[in-house]
Specification:
With 63 residues, this protein is mainly alpha-helical. It is built from two helices and no strands.
């Protein structure tokens, strides 16, 4: 008889653990649904690349 109670307890534990898998988020391909990232705008990319270009040029002229 103790085997049946252990089996029932393990079964209940498995069902409890599998119930956590019910919160599934469905995503659409090609659609970003996150927060807006200010550093990912085209202007920010151009600013960063300009700053990096200036740093590279100043590093090359010091030699």
């Amino acid at each position: 008889m103790p085997n049946k109670s252990v089996l029932a307890l393990c079964g209940a534990g498995c069902l409890f653990l599998l119930s956590a898998c019910g919160d599934v988020t469905m995503y659409e391909p090609g659609v970003y649904k996150g927060k807006h990232d200010e550093t990912a705008t085209e202007e920010a990319v151009q600013q960063r690349s300009g700053d990096l270009r200036e740093r590279a040029q100043s590093g090359m002229t010091d030699r």
